[in-house]
Specification:
The chain is built from three helices and seven strands, in the order H-E-E-E-E-H-E-E-H-E. The radius of gyration is 15 Å and the shape is globular.
Length: 133
């Protein structure tokens, strides 16, 4: 894996202030979420932190494969990190957590997804060939 591309992707996520996390359930139905923080955790692993919605978390129970897209629309430059979630870490819980209300009230737990990156591809809006980043 290209360490320079990983570092560039995480730096771009910091500049953009967000990244997109794509998951799919056991029936291959896709779901997209937005995450606010991306960090390098190891040579081939990133951490993605957000108050992820129930759809994202349910998908990860069935299918740990993810795509993390980091893209700057101003420059049409970005990366698609393909990999799998190795661990889900709870970072914070809303005071007054009510399990029965989680669907109505929205996410009540901030989580970090530890993602082992298997491949990094260039990403852009214009025509591209999915070349390694």
């Amino acid at each position: 894996m290209n360490r320079e591309a990983l570092e560039a992707a995480v730096a771009l996520a910091g500049q953009a202030g967000h990244a997109f996390v794509a998951t799919a359930d056991s029936q291959r139905l896709p779901h997209l979420a937005v995450a606010g923080a991306v960090s390098i955790e190891a040579a081939d692993q990133v951490g993605v932190t957000e108050w992820f919605c129930p759809g994202t978390m349910a998908n990860l129970e069935d299918n740990r494969r993810v795509a993390l897209v980091i893209w700057d629309p101003e420059t049409d430059r970005g990366y698609q990190l393909l990999g799998w979630v190795t661990e889900v870490k709870e970072q914070a819980v809303i005071d007054g957590y009510v399990p029965e209300a989680s669907e109505q009230a929205g996410p009540q737990v901030e989580r970090e997804l530890a993602i082992r990156v298997g491949e990094i591809l260039r990403f852009r809006q214009g025509p591209h060939s999915d070349e390694p980043g």
